[in-house]
Amino acid sequence: MVVTSFFVLQLLFLPPFAALALDFHVVKPHDLAFGARHRPAKLAPLGHGHNRLSLSLFHRDALPGRNFSGHRHRLDRLLERDSRRVVTLTRRLSTARYHVDDFGSEVVSGLEEGSGEYFVRVGVGVPPRDQYLVVDSGSDIVWIQCRPCSQCYAQSEPVFDPAESASFAGVACGSPICGLLLSGASAAAGCHAGDCRYAVSYGDGSSTKGTLALETLTFGTSAVRDVAIGCGHSNRGLFVGAAGVLGLGWGPMSFVGQLGGQAGGAFSYCLVSRGSDAPTGSLVFGRTAAVPVGAVWVPLLRNLRAPSFYYVRLLGLGVGGVRLPVLEDVFQLTEEGEGGVVMDTGTAVTRLPDAAYAALRDAFGAATAGLPRAPGVSIFDTCYSLFGYQSVRVPTVSFYFAGGTILTLPARNFLIPVDDMATFCFAFAPSSSGLSIMGNIQQEGIQITFDAANGFVGFGPNTC
C-alpha cells in the first residue's frame, strides 16, 4: 500500500533540469518557510461519557513571549536542542536503564532551551491550574515542578502548589504504584519518610527528583482522576518554559499506559506544519477518535532494553519514486537492542546511519543538480540558494516500511529554510551511532496513530 502525503502547487517558474524519470514536487519556496506564530487555540470542548480526550498541539515557538530575529536564530536554537536530544537518546539506549542520582490540552512546542518541541496545555489539580507540558513519545513518566522547590527552572506559569489542590494525594512507599515505578526502566524509586520518591536523570544532564503522587489532570472539560505523576521538587536542565513532561511512551507509567483500556490503548497526533494556516496540531486519546478510516499500518517493534520507545521496521529509502540501494540491515533492530528506527516527537531532524544518509543525500543532490547550491549550515551539508525563485521542482523522498507501506513526504518535511535569504537545506543528518531517529520535521502534517494495545503505528490518508 502507498501513502502519498504531499503538496502540489502551481508551477510558476521552472529552472532547467536534465531529463529525469523521477517523481517530483513542484513547490514555492515561500510555502516551505516557517509560518507566523499563533496564539494557542482553546481546547476543544468534550462531552462527558466519551472514552476520548482531544487537545490542541502547539509548536514550541507558539508559546507566549517567544521573539525571534529570523530563521537563522530559530534554526540555531532548534539544532542546539536537537543535538542534546540525540545525545540523550543515544545514551539511554546504550545502557539498560537511566542513570539516576542517589536520593539525598493543548500541545505547544517547546522549551526555551533543550529538548521538547511540542507542548500541550493541561489543568493540574482541583481546581485545575493550567500548565504547559512537553509531549514526549520517548518518556514513561508524567511529572511537573512542585512547591516547595529546592531547585526549579523558570517556567511560563506559576509553579504548581500541591497544598492548593483538593485532589492531590501522596503515594506510600509500599504501594503497588511505587513498586511499578521501581520495576520500570525509565526512573528510580526510593523511600523517604514513608513517601514514594522518584528520580529521572536524562542523558543530557537534565533531571527531576521528587515525590510520586496521584492527581487529577484536566483536558478541556474532561478530567482524568488518579493519574500517577512525579511532583518534582528538584529539577534542572533543558525544560525552561514548560512545567514538566507528559510521557506518552510504551511503558505502564506513561499517560497512555495509565489510561489503559479507557482509551482503547490508542492515541494519535498531528504536528502542525510550518507555513500552515492552522494555528495548532492535535493530540487525541481514544480508539474511536484516534484511529482514522483509511490509515495504513506498520508493525511496531519492542526493544526490551528500551521498552518506552516506539520502534518501526524501516526497510529502505527512496528519492523520486526510486528505491535506493541501501541494505535493509542498516535499519535492523538487533536481538541485543542495538540499531533500529525510533519514532520520536522530541527530535526534530531525522538521523540515519552514515551509509543510508550518504545514499539519500547523494541521490537527492543528483536530482537537484539544476538548483543553485549554498554552503552547508551546521549539521546540514546539502543546501540551496533559492532567492528570486517563485517555485522549484524537487524530487519526492519516501520511507519504505515492512509490509509494503511507502510513506512519501511533503516537500516542506525535508526542505527547510535556514535564514531570511531564501537558503534551504535538506533536513536529514547522519547518526552518531547505528540508531535511526524519525524526527518531528518529517512527521509534520501527517496524522500518526499509535495503537499500543495491538502493536501498530498508522499513517492517516490525509494531511492535517
Please write out the topology.
Layout: E1 2-4, E2 24-27, E3 53-59, H1 71-93, E4 106-108, E5 118-124, E6 129-136, E7 143-145, E8 169-170, H2 176-183, E9 188-192, E10 195-201, E11 207-219, E12 222-236, E13 244-247, H3 255-259, E14 266-270, E15 281-285, H4 287-290, E16 296-301, E17 310-312, E18 314-319, E19 322-323, E20 341-343, E21 350-352, H5 354-367, E22 373-374, E23 383-385, E24 392-395, E25 397-401, E26 406-408, E27 415-417, E28 423-426, E29 428-430, E30 436-438, H6 440-443, E31 446-451, E32 456-463
Parallel strand pairs: 1-26, 6-13, 7-12, 20-30, 21-29
Antiparallel strand pairs: 2-24, 3-5, 3-15, 4-5, 5-6, 5-11, 7-13, 8-11, 9-10, 10-11, 11-12, 14-15, 14-31, 16-17, 16-32, 17-20, 18-19, 18-25, 22-23, 23-28, 25-26, 27-28, 31-32
Radius of gyration: 22 Å
User: Considering the protein shown, what is the CATH homologous superfamily of the largest domain?
Assistant: Acid Proteases
For the largest beta sheet, what order do the strands appear in spatially? 5-6-13-7-12-11
Number-wise, the strands total 32
Mean pLDDT: 78
Helix content: 10-25%
Instruction: Name the beta content range.
Output: 25-35%
- How many distinct helices? 6
CATH class of the largest domain: Mainly Beta
Question: What is the SS-derived class?
Answer: mainly beta
* Whole-number total of structural domains: 2
What's the CATH topology label of the largest domain? Cathepsin D, subunit A, domain 1
End-to-end CA span: 20 Å
Low-confidence stretches: 1-21, 34-51, 95-115
**Biggest β-sheet: count, sense, barrel?**
6 strands, mixed, barrel
